Amino acid sequence: MLLLVVLPALISFGLAFTAYDALSPPVWRGLQNFPEIFANPLFWTALRNSATFVLLAVPLRVLGALALALLLRERRRGVGFYRAAVYLPTVIPDVAYALIWLWIFNPIYGPLNSVLGAIGLPQPAWLAHADSALLAIVIMSLLQIGEGFVVLLAGLQDIPRDYYHSAALDGGSRW
C-alpha cells in the first residue's frame, strides 16, 4: 500500500508545486501553478467531464454488477458460463478492447448504429462529437463490471441461508 499508493500520491503532491516536464529537474514554483490552472478553461472542461463521467458511470456500474450478481448467485446448470461471460471483458487487453469499441461505435459500418437505424432512432457519430463521445465512454465502462460483479457475488454467497429463512418466516418476499 505504501509503495503503490501513498508514495506516488506524495510525489504527485510535491510535483504540483513545481514546473516539471519529466526531462529536466523540477523547479520550485510554490503556489503559482494553481492560479494558472484555475484560469485555464480547459481545466474546467476536464473537471466537468470527469464529474459527469463519475456521476453516470459509477452508479450504473455498481447497479449493473449488483443486478448480475443477484441474477447469477444461485447454483444452476450453466451459470458458470454466464459468470465467466460477465468477467471476460475485464481480462481483455485494453488495446483489443479499444479496437472492438472503435468498431462498435463506427458511424458508417458499426453494429450499434446499424441497430439504431433499423429501429428508426438517430445514428450519431459517437466519437466525433463531445456530447456523444462522453456517453460512448460511459457505455464502454459499463461492460467492464467484472471486478465489482465478483466482489458482490462473493458477498452475496457469503450471506448465511438462515437470514433468508428468518426473513421468510417474518413474511418477507423474495425482494
Describe the structure.
- With 175 residues, this protein is mainly α.
- The protein folds into two domains: 1-39, no CATH class; 41-169, MetI-like (MetI-like fold), CATH 1.10.3720.
- 67% of the residues lie in helices and 2% in strands.
- The protein is built from nine helices and two strands.
- It has helices spanning 2-15, 33-39, 41-71, 79-91, 94-104, 111-118, 130-142, 146-157, 161-169, and strands at residues 18-19, 27-28.
- Strands 1-2 form a two-stranded antiparallel ribbon.
- β1 (18-19) and β2 (27-28) form a beta hairpin.
- α3 runs parallel beside α7 (130-142) and α3 (41-71) packs across α8 (146-157).
- The longest helix has 31 residues, at 41-71.
- The radius of gyration is 23 Å and the shape is extended.
- The two termini are 38 Å apart.
Please describe the topology of this protein.
Layout lengths: L1 H14 L2 E2 L7 E2 L4 H7 L1 H31 L7 H13 L2 H11 L6 H8 L11 H13 L3 H12 L3 H9 L6
Antiparallel strand pairs: 1-2
Helix pairs in contact: 3-7, 3-8, 4-8
Summarize it.
The chain has 175 residues and is mostly helical.
Number of domains: 2
Unreliable stretches (pLDDT < 50, length at least 5) are none
For this structure, the CATH topology of the largest domain is MetI-like fold
Listing every helix as H and every strand as E from the N terminus to the C terminus, the arrangement reads: HEEHHHHHHHH
Tell me the CATH architecture of the largest domain. Orthogonal Bundle
Structural class: mainly alpha
How can the largest sheet be summarized? 2 strands, antiparallel
Strand content: under 5%
